[in-house]
């Protein structure tokens, strides 16, 4: 087994364990918080997060990915570049925090939270904490040390339990979410620095900064575009609808994204690292990517279909009865997630791995233009028109991504789409069963039983007709040897 294959296998396993642990606890936390806090409270936090997350883009500027992707001459050069990245990020974050504090009231008014400038100022304290831990995290990822990151995340995921929930229980205020976020970021910064073998030292080089920025500025632009794609809709909603609908809108999206992220988060970074090592061998890079996507589709497609058919049940269980108006949005957003992930989201990692970072930026920019043209028209029509149009924009994103992969990257897209056939067939059969039994499930218990039946049908069909693909899918998310491991080992023999 090659060293890359072995490290990739370990990285995928530990990354998977991390996400499994977090996704086991996080839904429980969200269930509790959704019952302690109102949609209005989530709406306030969503709009303030919009401000802080924009500033956060500039506290990293793509340096983390540069440190992971770049081939350095020796350890000393790596350490020098790490120091340059660290001090740049920290200084920029402190400057931006100060700027936000000075203009906090104006920023609060801009997003419709009049008189909440203090909330904006306190939330922005996350910036130096994130900047402090970002470079440390890059070092762990570059070294495939996802085991250490697992234990750090394992500790931080209990922060909401010991900080956020008690505050929410006592005060029923958005402060619970804000203070909990700060506590989590502080924990990560302290523990990552303590566990890391690399420690910051006084060193800076403008030459190395320019070299890093020549790679990272496209990532920075992509991040700005991604932020605009992620939060411009929130800003538009806050202009035309109430804080209640802002909370309803953003929480619905977050709920779905948290469900799918257990797969995405566990697989995206190990895949990016592996593809970075194969960047000079396009045929093997494409083969690895295609097979990886095939395995991921075996989980993503049935998951998204299930979110549509059981949207009312999912909303009731995860959020509570006061969030019932969000059910259709959760279902539609979840249904389109599979297409968006398999033919869109993962492609950005592919571009970054081979150094074509500008492609992700161009795709995000085009998607942003579509959003700015459509949402100001549909948002004034009401919440339903808003979420339908926003969901359909995911298909536009996929279309642009496919065009980019074909025309610019010259990717064999047909071979990629063929990889989804096994998962699509199994999902179709499962969906037919869901259509028949779901209307018969009149209670929560029978809804749960219906979900169990659909899951059972899916895996029976997959095991009978596509056993090989099913096994590979489990291996890819870290159960046993990974797909990348097997591919690289095969390449060694050939």
What pattern of helices and strands is seen along the backbone? Answer: HHHHHHHHHHHHHHHHHHHHHH
The secondary structure category is mainly alpha
The low-confidence runs, each spanning 5 or more residues with pLDDT under 50, are: 479-484, 486-494
Could you give a short account of the major beta sheet? Answer: none
What's the pLDDT, averaged over the residues? Answer: 80
End-to-end separation: 13 Å
What is the share of helical residues?
over 70%
Number of H/I helices: 22
What's the total number of strands?
A: 0
Q: Assign an overall shape.
A: globular
**Compute the gyration radius: what is it?**
22 Å
**Structural domain count:** 1
Strand content: under 5%
Detailed description of the structure:
This protein has about 500 residues and is an all-alpha fold. Helix 4 packs parallel to helix 11, helix 13 crosses helix 21 and helix 13 packs antiparallel against helix 22. It is built from 22 helices and no strands. The protein starts with a helix and ends with a helix. Helix content is about 85%, strand content about 0%. It has one domain.
Quick structural overview:
This protein has 494 residues and is mainly α. The chain has helices at residues 3-36, 39-60, 63-69, 75-102, 104-110, 117-123, 126-142, 146-156, 159-171, 175-195, 206-240, 243-277, 282-309, 311-318, 327-353, 357-378, 383-407, 413-418, 421-437, 444-465, 467-476, 483-493. The radius of gyration is 22 Å and the shape is globular.
């Amino acid at each position: 087994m090659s060293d890359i294959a072995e490290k990739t296998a370990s990285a995928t396993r530990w990354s998977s364990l991390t996400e499994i642990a977090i996704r086991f606890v996080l839904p429980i936390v969200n269930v509790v918080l959704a019952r302690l806090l109102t949609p209005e409270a989530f709406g306030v936090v969503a709009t303030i997060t919009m401000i802080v997350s924009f500033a956060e883009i500039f506290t990293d500027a793509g340096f983390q990915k540069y440190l992971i992707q770049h081939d350095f001459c020796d350890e000393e050069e790596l350490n020098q570049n790490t120091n340059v990245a660290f001090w740049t990020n920290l200084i920029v974050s402190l400057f931006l925090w100060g700027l936000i504090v000075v203009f906090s009231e104006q920023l609060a008014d801009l997003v419709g939270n009049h008189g909440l400038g203090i909330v904006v100022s306190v939330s922005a304290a996350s910036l130096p904490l994130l900047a402090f831990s970002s470079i440390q995290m890059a070092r762990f990822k570059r070294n495939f040390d996802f085991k250490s990151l697992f234990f750090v995340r394992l500790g931080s995921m209990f922060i909401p339990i010991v900080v956020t929930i008690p505050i929410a229980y006592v005060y029923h205020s958005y402060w619970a979410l804000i203070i909990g976020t700060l506590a989590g970021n502080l924990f990560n910064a302290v523990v990552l620095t303590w566990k890391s073998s690399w420690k910051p030292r006084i060193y800076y080089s403008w030459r190395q900064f320019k070299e890093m920025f020549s790679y990272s500025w496209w990532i920075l632009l992509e991040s700005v575009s991604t932020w605009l794609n992620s939060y411009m809709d929130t800003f538009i909603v806050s202009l035309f609808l109430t804080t209640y609908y802002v909370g309803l809108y953003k929480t619905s999206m977050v709920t779905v994204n948290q469900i799918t992220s257990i797969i995405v988060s566990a697989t995206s970074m190990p895949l990016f690292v592996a593809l970075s090592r194969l960047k000079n061998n396009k045929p093997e890079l494409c083969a690895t990517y295609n097979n990886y996507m095939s395995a991921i589709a075996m989980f993503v497609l049935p998951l998204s279909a299930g979110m549509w058919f059981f949207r009312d049940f999912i909303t009731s269980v995860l959020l509570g009865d006061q969030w019932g108006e969000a059910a259709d949005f959760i279902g539609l957003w979840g249904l389109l997630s599979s297409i968006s992930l398999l033919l869109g989201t993962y492609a950005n990692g592919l571009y970054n791995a081979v150094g074509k970072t500008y492609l992700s930026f161009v795709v995000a920019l085009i998607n942003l233009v579509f959003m700015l043209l459509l949402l100001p028209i549909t948002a004034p029509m009401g919440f339903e028109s808003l979420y339908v149009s926003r969901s359909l924009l995911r298909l536009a994103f996929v279309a642009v991504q496919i065009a980019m992969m074909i025309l610019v990257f010259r990717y064999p897209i047909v071979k990629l789409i063929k990889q989804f056939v096994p998962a699509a067939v199994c999902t179709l059969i499962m969906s037919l069963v869901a259509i028949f039994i779901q209307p018969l499930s009149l209670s929560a218990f029978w809804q749960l039983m219906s979900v169990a039946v659909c899951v059972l049908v899916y895996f029976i069909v997959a095991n009978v007709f596509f056993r090989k693909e099913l096994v590979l899918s489990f291996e890819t998310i870290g159960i046993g040897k990974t797909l990348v491991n097997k591919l690289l080992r095969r390449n060694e023999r050939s």
